[in-house]
Specification:
The protein is mainly α. The chain is about 65% helix and about 0% strand.
């Protein structure tokens, strides 16, 4: 199944990956989906801070 989403790769410590995987599992999400959600929230927060200056 093809996807129209862009792919991004980043590196992190094994400990961080484990914690993220546990978080994703607890919400029945894939690790990729969780990272996308966290990143989107961070971008939205950043945009709100920038627009309020």
């Amino acid at each position: 199944m093809a996807t129209s989403k862009a792919k991004v790769t980043f590196t992190c410590s094994p400990e961080l990956k484990e914690k993220l995987q546990e978080w994703a599992d607890s919400e029945s999400r894939t690790l990729s989906n969780l990272v996308e959600l966290i990143t989107q929230q961070a971008v939205t927060n950043h945009e709100n801070k920038v627009s309020n200056k």
